[in-house]
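HUMAN: Spend a minute on the protein record below and explain its fold to me.
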Amino acid sequence: MDSITIKNVIKDLETAIGKRKVVYDADIIEKYSKDETSDLYHYPDIVVRAGATEDVSKTLSICSKYIVPVVARGAGTGVTGGAVPVQGGVVLSLELMNRIIEIDRENMVAVVEPGVITGDLQRAVQKEGMMYPPDPASLDSCSIAGNVAEGAGGPRAVKYGTTKDYIIGLEFVLPNGSIINYGGKIVKNATGYNLSGVLVGSEGTLAVITKIFLRLIPLPSHSLDFLIPFKNIDDAVKNVNKIICSRIIPSTIEFMEEDSIKLVSEFLGGEMPFPDAGAHLLIQVDGNSEEDLLKDLESITACVDTDYEIIVAQSRSQSDRIWKARRSMREAIQEKSPIFLAEDCVVPRSMIAVFLREVKDFLNTRNLSSVMFGHAGDGNVHIDVLKKDIDYVEWKKMLPELKENIYKIAIKHGGTISGEHGIGYIRKDFLSLAVSRDEIDLLRRIKHAFDPDMILNPGKIF
């Protein structure tokens, strides 16, 4: 924005929503120049800290008037640059809109504002004997609206699905300031197009979400965690299929391959079981009685083929120990290499091992270190390529080729380029690898219908 436009926008915003909600001090807005994406930042011109839907509506109306870019931001935990204001303009922060408005036990619905932290919501509904299943890795720092914007998943997706499966209503604001209410505390809704379905995964490019109605389910009263080591990832994947074909759907089935096990073992100072195994499966089963869980455990151990001992958690501390390595992966990666390429391709579950092997072979031809882990139950694979001591300019030149080859391998095996982190800014140049021209044209028309002046999160997805 030019200086005159900035001054006019600031003046109008301060008049409409109050001076304390409008921020343009460089030291403060630095926080809003980045999210968790490695090596990407861009300063906004203005930050608006909205406190209510009316603030969002007035802000969008003013930005629409001046054709100013607006980037809605939740907790800033995304990893594809979705919350980075790459064209400057206004960052519309929803962090202060963080109330759990209602937990309705009778209808099993939670009504929340966009800035509610996912883990806080989970703990609140658990106290009421209910469960909100989606559990992204950053659940103690990510916001619900961010989960909606990205279509977030998590380890429990194999049994319970992802964020999209729990959205039954949304309040959202269009770029012109119009407030739309869709759905609510109803189980069924065949009234017109499914607008919630359109907005889930739209990455803040269509509208700004200001209230969310979430379906809840009964909370299982018992759970059991165990770790199964294997000689290699092929054996681990084969046994995932055996488990599911035996008619047992664990709530989570996570995997770690050899290089990820070694990296996190080093990070934790050797504090993890079977650090020399070629692969780990981390499994949780849940249910309403210990007897049911023991039956599931017996069935799984009977069908699983491994030369290692299976570790079954006998206490909460043992469960925490089993999961500590998986939960420490991102910290371990950042300590080893603060700059890294993070991908989250998805392939059919049966193709995980083949996909990983081909990607690993390709990266080895470039002498690149990588770690791979993820959700064995739904084929969502996290691939992290470490920069380490590679020259920065050389690293930046390498990235397009690395991404393209990883994506092409995923697509070749029936997959696609992102399972839960979205396209954002860092993958937009590769969308055409996975999506046809006709589909991209349709997506663009949807974007134009919602946002004719193209002010919402410009430079993302397309």
Notes: The longest strand covers residues 222-230.
